[in-house]
Amino acid sequence: LAPLQVEMRTLAMLPGLLRQLRAACTRLAAGARVLPSSVQETAGHVRHSVEGVQASLSRARSLHDLSDLVLAQSRETVMRAQLSIDELLEYVGQHAPLPWLVGPFAPALVEYPEDFPVEMAKWEGCITVG
């Protein structure tokens, strides 16, 4: 592909990717309301950072519209957001109660204690990791 075609495709994909990232951060911040205030703050900072990147990049009609500084700051912001999300996931993995993490499987875990046999047909089609 010619550099101009790559640029055009990149710019065409950018708004959708930024919308998806912003939506994910909004859901993350909303879900963090049940977590400690420090975790809520981190989630809020991530969302705010992503909104800033979206605002900076959304006005561009070509990559030449974006200064090297804006591109570098955007890249740095997204990298920091990724690290923060990794920290949030680690926190949730270490501190959240099991039923909160397993979601739709929680009723089966609560309903059937470990020593009670569960019909395998109930689990048909489920993917196991091991």
From TrEMBL:
One of its GO terms (biological process) is positive regulation of triglyceride storage. It comes from the Eukaryota. This is PLIN3 protein. Belongs to the perilipin family. The keyword Disulfide bond does not apply. The lineage of its organism: Eukaryota, Metazoa, Chordata, Craniata, Vertebrata. GO terms for cellular component: cytosol; lipid droplet. Its main location: other. It comes from Ardeotis kori. Gene3D superfamilies: Flagellar protein FliS (1.20.120.340). Pfam families: Perilipin.
